[in-house]
Amino acid sequence: MQLLALFDLDNTLIDRQCGLEEWARDFSVTRALLPHAERLIGDALRERAYPADFERLRDCLGLADSVDSLWSEYVAGMAARARCRAGLHSDLRRMRAAGWTLGVITNGATDIQRAKVENAGLSALVDGVCVSEEVGVRKPSVALFQAAAARCGATLAEGGWMVGDNVETDIEGGRSAGLRTVWIAAGRQWPADVRSPDLMAEDASAAIGSLTEWGTYSEPQSCGSL
Known about the structure:
Blueprint: E1 4-7, H1 16-30, H2 37-45, H3 51-61, H4 67-80, H5 88-97, E2 101-106, H6 110-119, E3 128-131, H7 132-135, H8 142-151, E4 161-164, H9 167-176, E5 180-184, E6 199-201, H10 204-217
Parallel strand pairs: 1-2, 1-4, 2-3, 4-5, 5-6
Helix pairs in contact: 1-2, 3-4, 4-6, 5-10
């Protein structure tokens, strides 16, 4: 099997949820919105965010801004809050130095996802980035995994690994594409009624450590009990 690892972006390489909570709070305070606005924004954008979502939010919150203006403000604000956990950059560098080809595969709008990749300092640490809007399909579609591998100069024919936090889009999607999988648990338990991933890890750094060890010995090692 080739040393190819595709990583989900949001809540795998970066903490999107924390960034969203910060942005919603700052946006609400800056505009002196009613107390419920922060929760409303967080709920509306929790799973995904596109310009159309801001048309609905604008109407709900009684804002006079254009949708384009609100979207641009959101993109800039979320990109500025895109942060990797301490040590992750070094972990990715070591993984590439060990011969791995690394890619980012993410659902979402192109402008915001690429802005987050850039601002999080990930662009120079991976071989390719693939955003669903660019391809016209979303995870768990096999076509997006194929496109992500191609962006890295690879194919799925030789296998590889998918690392992500979402059971359906990352783990089941990666498995359908013929990849082995690492689930980022982040304090959660794996659903009892779903086929288990090949490996589980608490965070991306733990996943990288396990995969790097696997690449050395060709034998997956446990990331620790969860």
